[in-house]
Amino acid sequence: MSDTEYAIESADAGASATIPMEAGQIKKGGFIMIKGKPCKVLSISVSKTGKHGHAKCNFTATDIFTGKKLEDMVPSSHGTTVPIVNRTEWDIMDIGEDGEVTLMDESGNEKTDINLPSYPETMAQEIRDAWDGGENQVSVTVQSAVGIEQIVAFKKG
């Protein structure tokens, strides 16, 4: 066997979209993965230790992209996963007919692979109205987690 048969074409740094964390370490306002969805924790109730010896954390959270309410119960000493959530500011350069948005950051980098948000329902129209209304500058906040990017907020001017 020659060395070329095992040549590595490319390598992945192994960066993950989530990190492991003990359930008891997650705080209200933090993030947690529930049923494969990145969620923001609304409330946590902790039950007493039972006959099996573990206190249980009952998480109530909302999906950060759809707003859907989800719940999960995890023993406090057991591991769960937390999504890595990033928020970046972008200026709108153009809005296409079908809702595709062209964005630019303060470094001059362009982003063209994002559409107007579907949640909350009124935000897409509000952004379009502000843009069509001739506002000098409409900027948006793009939130990204687990390979999903979505506009989550905007401001005029």
Automatic annotation (TrEMBL):
A Pfam family hit: IF5A-like_N
GO MF term list: ribosome binding; translation elongation factor activity
Localization (cell): Plastid, Chloroplast
Main location: plastid
GO biological process: positive regulation of translational elongation; positive regulation of translational termination
Stated role: Translation factor that promotes translation elongation and termination, particularly upon ribosome stalling at specific amino acid sequence contexts. Binds between the exit (E) and peptidyl (P) site of the ribosome and promotes rescue of stalled ribosome: specifically required for efficient translation of polyproline-containing peptides as well as other motifs that stall the ribosome. Acts as ribosome quality control (RQC) cofactor by joining the RQC complex to facilitate peptidyl transfer during CAT tailing step.
Record's protein name: Eukaryotic translation initiation factor 5A
Species the sequence originates in: Stephanodiscus triporus
